[in-house]
Amino acid sequence: MPMQQMMQSTPPPPPSCAQDATFLVIGAGGLGAPLLLALGAAGARRLVIVDPDLVDESNLQRQVLYRTRDVGRPKVLAAKDALLRRWPGLSIEPVRARFDETSARALATDADVLCEGSDDLATKFLANDVAHALGRSVVIGGVLRHAGQVFPVRPGRDACYRCLFESLPSGDAARCADAGVFGATCGEVGALQARAALALAGDPAHDALLGRVWLVEPGGTRKLTLRPRAGCTGCGAVESPAAEVSSMLATTHSHFDTRVTATKA
Ligand SMILES: [Zn+2]
Question: For residue 166, how far is its CA from the centre of ligand 1 (angstroms)?
Answer without folding.
Answer: 8
